[in-house]
Records
---
Amino acid sequence: MAATVVGSTPLEEPDLSRMERYGSRSCCINLTYQCLQGFPGQEHLHYTLCHHDAAAPCGFDSDLGCCNGYMYCIGMFVEQHGLEDTHNHCKTRLCNPNRR
């Protein structure tokens, strides 16, 4: 059974998560990356802080953070491979890998 609410509009891309529809994914990744650039050689110590700091300006709860897939990827590789290479590798990761 389908229903249409008067005055509503369908989502332009219904398969995208809320984060992806509203551009918050790129906001989160960009702000996290910018923050990490302020800690050269110590990114592996600050990636969770930067991730949580990026959440609120991008429309998410700062306690929960945003784009966890990117954060976990950064945490796994940044110390060994450096920030720029790791960012380029991780920026296409799903934000919530366990959700579709």
---
Amino acid sequence: NVSLGGSQVCVVGPSSSQKFAGESAVSRKCDFFLRQPFPDQCYSCETTLVVIEPKKGKPCYLLAMNQKEANSLRITIEKAESALSKSSEKQSKNSSYSRGPNGIVSRTTSALRRSFASNKKVDVCGEDAIENMKSNHDTDGLERINCSKLINADMVHSDPIWPELDTLRGCTDFLTSNSHHARGLEHARLMVDHFKGCYQMGDSSLSDEFRLEAWRGTMRRIIKALVDQLLICNPSLKSCMTNEEHMNQIWLACETWVFGSVHDKIMGACKQMTAIKDNMMDETLARLEKADPSTLGVRREFETFVLGDALYQFKLINKFTTPLEKAICLRKTINCVLEAIKTVETSYTGAMQDMEELLPCTDDLLSFMVLLMARAKIQNLQANASYMENFLYINKDGSKGELGFHITNFLAACNYLQSKEIKDIISQLEPKSGHVPGSCFPVPSVH
């Protein structure tokens, strides 16, 4: 995606996109966009538009890579419209809010979201319609495609190349399902065995950042070698090279399989690296185990939600061996809380302002995680945090998406447990006698 501010842009079909990009009939407002080359994918697929026409305001347009994706996107929009139209009856006319991807309250400001809340017509407009506009010199119709609001490409999803790629077992099944993958897997196993048997995890005198980056580089080379072999040896995967979403799925499947194979060595090194911090955290959490949830910032109305299914889900984190599965465990943990809150919200009949206050915010999510850590009695939390932060999506240097949000929340909880505020809470919970001045922990009595 390219953010174009308030510029008008034109989107055309693949067969004539290169030619049309140079036509002088296009308004000067399009110059910025048209000077930029189209992605290679646009030349090899049937580019299709989804047109959203609200009763008020300008139309919104979404670009899909083919007719199938466009139909899927249209269905998604219509479902969102139906859901929002039902909830809008409970909302005040002057205040509009929506739930974000993690259940957090956010104000509705997007033009696309506003169109969801209004009555609108949704059409799928293919290349033929665009060609007709061109042949009729309908530059006004073409210029109506407005990209003043950046549309998230994640809204358009291709069918997954394999089910259950969010588990180690699913990724393994995908890689072993085709005989064309045998050569690549054998080569990857040799590299993994060499890493496990010969690779030195680094002198402890080296900085943690240097050691982690060295491990990441080695893992990245093994994963890339496996991905390249799959694309070379399996003809059915060639089409994935022009589909970014499918390429990400292939990479993630290989990444998950590799880390499932080297977990003991990598995680063992992370445990050694964070041993001191983990010991201090275990001691802190032991003193917070009996603390009232409200002292940790958890609101009374949320206590039962956090200490129910969410606590059970969180306790499973050490049963998983890959960064992906551990991060998904965090997401499921928080989702257990949010789903329980959503149930209460659905049955709520009070004032709108009170319902808005019931919805959790980011501070609540941090408090939820601290309380879960205090009650779950899980070891090596710092090692788990380092493992997920440094080895999930190692081919991406930027954001890790929704899973990255949950990892960040987990890291924030770990840091908060080392803060002065937590030490003050513990000092208030412990008996006053037997304290050493300046210390928040009591000195045990000797009998």
---
Amino acid sequence: MVTLLVHDPQWILCLATGVRALYVLVIITFIVVVVVVVVVVVVVVVVVVVVVVVVVVVVVVVVVLVVVIIVVLIVVVVAVEVSSSSSSSSRSSSRNSSSNSSGGGGFKQQ
């Protein structure tokens, strides 16, 4: 029986076919693993890029909002100052004109 297995060429062909099938299986497994690793790396890179873009957009929006709020506050403060200074100057000029007219009138009567 052992001599039959050794001298039988079919047994060697079966062994060679099995080894060939094993090589094909290893190559297919290697290709699948490489494809999976490449896909995982691409997905991780895309996720990182998306997160970075979202963070940059949020930072830009926050900075723009802060700048707009500061500009609006400056405009409001300047407007309030201008309106209060103009109203106080108009009050003081009206006081001066009323005191000048009364004082001038009293001076002419003498």
---
Amino acid sequence: MAATYLTLAGFQRLNDELAHLWQTKRPHIVKALQTAAAEGDRSENAEYIYRKKELRETDRKIRQLEAGLSRAKVVRDNPKDQQRVFFGAEVTLMPAATEQDSVEPRIHRLVGGLEARLEMGEISVDAPLAKQLLGRTLGDRLRLKGGEGQNKTYEIVRIRYYNQTYRDAKNHASNPAES
């Protein structure tokens, strides 16, 4: 099987999630399942049926994380050429000067597929957008599909790499005054 590339922060976050599933969530579900099973007829017991489904989903997530983490190759170092977009880069895109109808920047970080979180701007390095960004440099322009199916031109205005770990980010979020 092919290796799964992860950032250090992603590797730590996924390991924390796996530990939480094993140590907290799964035991809680098993206990609730046992309580529901003790209530009698399981065929019409909605709580029992729900908990069985929840346990299956949790076990599936555990297997998925264990498999992905067992194949993981953690990318700890930033690339030598930090003027180009590579794995781990945070890229800020702005609409080109000719398309100023939307001045909101788009910020994306290229990460491994297992750790991608779209709501956080983290996209899989295998995603079509990431493939368009890979190897590009500051000032490069690219055309992206907009919300209404229209293409828009964006310019790369910032490329940033950082080695912040997941635990560093969590500590900073809970204690922002310390920065």
